[in-house]
């Protein structure tokens, strides 16, 4: 019979594997949108996601919490970059509105996939204390 600790590790590995799969799928679809083939990009992303899921489950990768120390100026710098990005997107919408769907949506899908992948990988980085 498995101990509760082993069952918890199995659950964490499944959760991580699922997050990695979804991230790969969104990143693939985003890249596919750039090339006007989201179906192909999504299929490739799913294939990569399934491979990574298998590797995570086979190796028994443990999800581990981490702590990150960010500089105090990071939030200000991110807000400046976000402001510049929003202004640039507004300019593109004014000048080339036909670019809105293929490029902006593709970038949003890739950003969402990268966010999900980062969240999954950050849960791997450090063992829980105790």
Q: What are its keywords?
A:
75% helix, 4 helices, flat, 130 residues
Q: What would you say this structure looks like, in words?
A:
This protein has 130 residues and is mostly helical. It is built from 4 helices and no strands. Helix 1 runs antiparallel to helix 2 (38-59) and helix 1 (4-34) runs antiparallel to helix 4.
Strand content: under 5%
Instruction: Work out the radius of gyration.
Output: 19 Å
Strand element count = 0
- Shape, please? flat
Q: How far do the termini sit from each other?
A: 22 Å
Can you summarize this structure?
The chain has 4 helices and no strands. It has 130 residues and is an all-alpha fold. It starts with a helix and ends in an 8-residue tail after the last helix.
Layout of secondary structure:
Layout: H1 4-34, H2 38-59, H3 74-95, H4 100-122
Helix pairs in contact: 1-2, 1-4
């Amino acid at each position: 019979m498995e101990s509760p600790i082993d069952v918890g590790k199995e659950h964490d590995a499944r959760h991580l594997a699922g997050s990695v799969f979804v991230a790969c799928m969104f990143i693939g679809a985003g890249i596919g949108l750039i090339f006007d083939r989201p179906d192909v990009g999504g299929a490739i992303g799913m294939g990569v996601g399934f491979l990574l899921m298998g590797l995570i489950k086979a190796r028994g990768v443990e999800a581990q919490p981490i702590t990150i120390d960010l500089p105090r100026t990071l939030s200000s710098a991110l807000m400046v970059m976000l402001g510049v990005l929003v202004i640039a997107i507004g300019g593109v919408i004014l000048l080339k509105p036909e670019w809105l769907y293929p490029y902006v949506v593709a970038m949003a899908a890739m950003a969402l996939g990268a966010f999900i992948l980062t969240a999954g990988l950050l849960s791997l980085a450090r063992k829980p204390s105790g």
